[in-house]
Design goal:
The complex is a heterodimer of chains A (392) and B (176). Chain A is α+β, with helices and mostly antiparallel strands and 392 residues long. Among the domains of chain A are: 30 residues; 119 residues, Rod shape-determining protein MreC, domain 2 (Thrombin, subunit H), CATH 2.40.10; 87 residues, no CATH class. In chain A, a hairpin with a 5-residue loop joins strand 7 and strand 8. By secondary structure, chain B is mainly α. In chain B, 70% of the residues lie in helices and 0% in strands. Chain B is built from 7 helices and no strands. In chain B, helix 3 runs antiparallel to helix 4, helix 3 packs across helix 7 and helix 6 crosses helix 7. Chain B is globular and about 50 Å long. The two termini of chain B are 26 Å apart. The N terminus of chain B is likely disordered. Classes of the chains: A alpha+beta (392), B mainly alpha (176). At the A-B interface, helix 2, helix 3 and strand 1 of A face helix 2, helix 4 and helix 5 of B.
């Protein structure tokens, strides 16, 4: 026997290794239990390194971003040589800070308003393998997370925890084919089962052909799966067609539409009624803009900051009906007037640039002057109620 | 061309088996797994790069020992399984076979030829994906689809990455 084993040493090693793994596999499939110890070791080994990498990445990205922003400001200062750019820089910094803070703020506002006990987590890694729809989050059993807990964002449901370890957890996204949750349509109160398809869409299964579901209708969690509390947004219907026995309903998952970086894990859920109206987008309360220096500043409308155009400075400037809000906007208006005066078409190829030294005949408003339509700072409420603004 | 002919004709038994430090043997697979866990977050298309597989092929080819290839493939596959949502053993079995066959091939051919490495990386990627699909269907009963054309394209991409990667890993060889 020993002779045979020695002679076929290589093959014996292969067969032994495969057999061990087959037994391991069979045990897991039959008993429906996982070999937790090995997974804990692997996750514990990888999580600190992934955190270290993430810290290094975000640190270096922030450093370079800051560096280039400062470099850009320096060039602008040299070119324009006025205090206008200092205010412009402040605006840019504030806008970028607002952008950065918006997601976190929306998350914390939602966390406070939802009435549920949740814990915020960040996604730190993907599942290995190209076919996985499982991601790794940086919170584990140490934060009270357990398998089966629901994971959401202010926009809707995201998935559920499938395994949790001391420092991290595996999150099964709703787009994974193994995912399922009970859902209820808003308008016609149709019950169904939300399932992942492996791509960006999800489907609602087990809805009879006789039942009425319309395109654009919203689906909410039904709460009957004991995972998701009732009344959380699941998605909007993008297509409906009759099938053999049940309807084929395709949903665009609302929780994933703005990307996935920060999520909330529901520790203690709270069932809510399905609203009668379409879901409003998440409200974010923002303080009014600070007044400009020298007493000539404006207290901007806080709703502008939360509006979609706040994310796009150019839109914000061009769509401004009540006069320029910032020095940057006034500078844009001044540039446009110069262009119109010289009959220059901006963006046209081969036309070069207008002569900015020629002052147009009609008076250009002083960049420092306050527009007539703007409200004085004292009239602007110190704190305004939250406003609902569509995100898209 | 001379490199190619040498790679196919020279019996590898006459050449020395490369030696690696334990840090390299443990650190490189760990880095490969970390790469697959972390990098696709920011570069989605890099999810199709099977770094753990390429590392398995490389070490198995270089060490020329099928038992080493078996153990190495099994360990890296199980580690990959541990971080996925699938039962332990799926990647493990596939990579065990890859490690074994790669080491067996290296006993016949010199594993330092670029062309041979390219071909082996291509073949083993396809083999790995196909075997993983087979295991998913046969053992887990999952209705997953296998797309040969897409897999072939990915195999080419992985093979293209494998050649320079293996060159870099050659630097870790501490044989005198």
């Amino acid at each position: 026997m020993d002779l045979i084993l020695n002679r076929y040493r290589n093959l014996t090693a292969l067969v032994a290794a495969i057999l061990v793994q087959l037994v391991l596999l069979a045990y897991q499939v039959k008993s429906n239990q996982e070999v937790r110890l090995i997974r804990v070791w692997a996750v514990s080994a990888v999580t600190p390194l992934a955190r270290l990498l993430e810290g290094g990445r975000s640190g270096s990205v922030n450093f370079f971003r800051d560096y280039f922003v400062l470099l850009d400001v320096r060039e602008q200062n040299k070119r324009l040589q006025t205090d206008l750019n200092r205010v412009q820089l402040e605006n840019q910094v504030l806008r970028s800070e607002l952008d950065t803070a918006e997601r976190g703020k929306a998350l914390s506002v939602f966390q406070e308003q939802s009435g549920m006990k949740t814990v915020a987590a960040r996604i730190i890694g993907n599942s290995p393998g190209s076919n996985g729809r499982v991601v790794l989050i940086d919170r584990g059993t140490g934060s009270g997370i357990q398998p089966g807990m629901a994971v959401i964002t202010p926009d809707g449901i995201v998935g559920k925890i499938v395994s949790s370890y001391p420092t991290a957890s595996n999150l099964l996204l709703i787009t994974d084919p193994a995912f399922a949750a009970g859902v209820l349509s808003q308008k016609n109160r149709v019950h169904g089962t939300l399932k992942g398809t492996g791509n960006s869409n999800v489907i609602v299964d087990y809805v009879q052909n006789e039942q009425n579901v319309e395109v654009g209708e919203w689906f909410y969690t039904a709460g009957d799966d004991r995972i998701f509390p009732k009344g959380l947004l699941a998605g909007t219907v993008t297509a409906v067609r009759p099938g053999r026995t049940v309807k084929e309903i395709f949903l665009s998952p609302s929780g994933l539409q703005h990307g996935l970086e920060d999520v909330l894990v529901i520790l203690e859920g709270d069932h809510k009624p399905i609203p009668d109206l379409p879901p409003p987008n998440q409200t974010v309360h923002l303080q009014p803009l600070p007044p400009a220096e020298g007493g000539t500043g404006l207290a901007g409308d806080p709703t502008n900051a939360a509006s979609p155009s706040a994310n796009n400075p150019s839109n914000n400037a061009s769509n401004n009906n009540g006069g320029a809000q910032t020095d940057l906007d006034r500078e844009v208006q001044r540039t446009r007037r110069i262009g119109e005066d010289q009959k220059h078409v901006f963006g046209e190829r081969g036309r070069g640039a207008p002569d900015f030294n020629k002052i147009p005949d009609n008076k250009v408003p002083d960049p420092g002057a306050r527009p007539a339509s703007a409200s004085p700072p004292s009239q602007t409420p110190a704190a305004t109620p939250p406003v609902n603004q569509p995100r898209q | 061309m001379s490199d190619l002919s040498a790679g196919f004709s020279e019996p590898p038994r006459r050449t020395k088996v490369p030696k690696f430090k334990w840090v390299a043997i443990i650190g490189v697979p760990l880095a490969a797994i970390l790469f697959q866990v972390y990098v696709p977050r920011f570069f989605t298309y890099l999810a199709y790069l099977e770094m753990p597989l390429l590392v398995t092929v490389y070490y198995s080819l270089r060490r020329r020992s099928p038992p080493f290839g078996v153990v190495f493939g099994m360990c890296i596959g199980l580690a990959q399984d541990s971080l996925s949502n699938h039962p332990l053993g799926m990647f493990g079995i596939a990579k065990t076979l890859v490690g074994y066959f790669a080491a067996s091939v290296s006993q016949r051919f010199e594993g330092s030829s670029d062309l041979l490495r390219l071909m082996l990386a291509f073949f083993f990627f396809f083999f790995h994906q196909f075997f993983y699909w087979l295991l998913s269907r046969a053992l887990l009963g999952e209705a997953v689809s296998f797309e040969p054309v897409q897999t072939l394209v990915l195999a080419v991409l992985n093979a293209a990455v494998a050649v320079p990667l293996f060159r870099i890993l050659d630097k870790l060889d501490v044989t005198d």
